[in-house]
């Protein structure tokens, strides 16, 4: 049973996505509080599922498959809803789109490289990017709730969103460059066959 805990935590993030989306349709500021709590709990489970999998030495194929998908689904859902209700609007949408595009690009690249049996380990800078991104999106989900008690959650979130977007471009470029080197090798092998 202990070996299934990391996978259950990952699945809980996927199950939480409809709750996160529904929270934005609640009356505000209640909806903001619910979205913030759901997003924060999802971030906590993301941390613990990986840590427990390594500590218990129970890294599973399903966990390796679902964990990045759960992350991208949660991030994508949060960004779409934040833009839809205009807590992220104007020029700040550019930062949100950069983050979404990088997530899709890296996912596709990892899938292609997996077929070549090439792994793309997560860099320290990418871990920092994820941390900043989660804090920024968490703050943004709390826009109305934070304003209710006089905290600048939206402002903090927007600054964090831009920092995450800059880190996203740097790490995305690093992944793309490394991935293209493997793709070129694969193409050279295919041409020589």
UniProtKB/TrEMBL annotation:
Transmembrane segments: 7-26, 32-52, 73-101
Record GO biological process: glycerophospholipid biosynthetic process
Compartment list: Membrane
Enzyme Commission (EC) number: 2.7.8.5
Family designation: Belongs to the CDP-alcohol phosphatidyltransferase class-I family.
Protein's recorded name: CDP-diacylglycerol--glycerol-3-phosphate 3-phosphatidyltransferase
Protein encoded by which gene: pgsA
GO molecular function: CDP-diacylglycerol-glycerol-3-phosphate 3-phosphatidyltransferase activity
Keyword Lipid metabolism: yes
Membrane topology: Multi-pass membrane protein
InterPro entries in UniProt: CDP-alcohol_PTase-I, CDP-OH_P_trans, CDP-OH_PTrfase_TM_dom, CDP_ALCOHOL_P_TRANSF_CS, Phosphatidylglycerol_P_synth
Reaction catalyzed: a CDP-1,2-diacyl-sn-glycerol + sn-glycerol 3-phosphate = a 1,2-diacyl-sn-glycero-3-phospho-(1'-sn-glycero-3'-phosphate) + CMP + H(+)
Record keywords: Lipid biosynthesis, Lipid metabolism, Membrane, Phospholipid biosynthesis, Phospholipid metabolism, Transferase, Transmembrane, Transmembrane helix
Pathway: Phospholipid metabolism; phosphatidylglycerol biosynthesis; phosphatidylglycerol from CDP-diacylglycerol: step 1/2; Lipid metabolism
PROSITE patterns linked to this entry: CDP_ALCOHOL_P_TRANSF (PS00379)
GO cellular component, one term: membrane
NCBIfam families in the cross-refs: pgsA
């Amino acid at each position: 049973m202990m070996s299934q805990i990391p996978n259950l935590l990952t699945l809980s993030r996927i199950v939480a996505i409809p709750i996160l989306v529904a929270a934005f349709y609640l009356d505000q500021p209640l909806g903001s509080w619910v979205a913030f709590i759901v997003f924060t709990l999802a971030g906590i489970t993301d941390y613990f599922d990986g840590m427990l999998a390594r500590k218990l030495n129970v890294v599973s194929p399903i966990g390796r498959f679902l964990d990045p998908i759960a992350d991208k689904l949660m991030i994508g859902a949060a960004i779409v809803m934040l833009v839809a209700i205009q807590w992220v609007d104007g020029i700040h949408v550019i930062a949100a789109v950069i983050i979404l595009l990088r997530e899709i690009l890296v996912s596709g690249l990892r899938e292609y490289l997996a077929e070549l049996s090439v792994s793309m380990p997560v860099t320290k800078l990418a871990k920092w990017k994820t941390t900043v991104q989660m804090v920024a999106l968490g703050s943004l989900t709390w826009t109305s709730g934070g304003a209710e008690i006089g905290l600048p959650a939206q402002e903090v979130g927007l600054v964090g969103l831009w920092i995450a977007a800059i880190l996203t471009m740097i790490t995305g470029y690093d992944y793309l460059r490394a991935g293209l080197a493997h793709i070129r090798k694969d193409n050279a092998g295919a041409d020589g066959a």
